[in-house]
Design brief:
- This protein has helices spanning 10-14, 42-50, 55-61, 67-83, and strands spanning 22-23, 34-35.
- It is globular.
- It has 94 residues and is mainly alpha-helical.
- It has one domain (14-83): Arc Repressor Mutant, subunit A (Orthogonal Bundle).
- The longest helix is centred in the C-terminal third of the chain and has 17 residues, at 67-83.
- It contains 4 helices and 2 strands, in the order H-E-E-H-H-H.
- 40% of the residues lie in helices and 4% in strands.
- Strands 1-2 form a two-stranded antiparallel sheet.
- The protein starts with 9 loop residues before the first helix and ends in an 11-residue tail after the last helix.
């Protein structure tokens, strides 16, 4: 898959190398985006952050992760939001 992106966000420009920490491998977790082939899905990290876990708490609970991995997950999520069309009306919130 080839993505053509225009990234205007300063954060992404400064942290462009972070995104290389994200891997998508059909042999690992069914091809879900993971951190460094560790079987740690990006969406799991995002969910922990959304629930209020600090970066330090995530690293304590998952010592295989590094701060750069968490930042890479955020960068990846930002890129995904920029390249996908999402509905803006009639979104069910349950």
């Amino acid at each position: 898959m080839i993505l053509f992106l225009y990234l205007s966000c300063d954060y992404l420009r400064k942290n462009n190398g972070d995104i290389n920490r994200i891997t998508v491998n059909p042999e690992i977790m069914g091809g879900v985006a993971c951190i460094r082939n560790l079987r740690m899905p990006v969406d799991t990290i995002l969910a922990m952050l959304a629930e209020g876990c600090s970066e330090q708490k995530i690293i304590e609970e998952h010592p295989e992760l590094k701060l750069e991995d968490i930042r890479a997950a955020l960068s990846y999520a930002t890129i995904c939001m920029r390249v996908r069309e999402l509905p803006t009306e009639n979104i069910p919130f349950n």
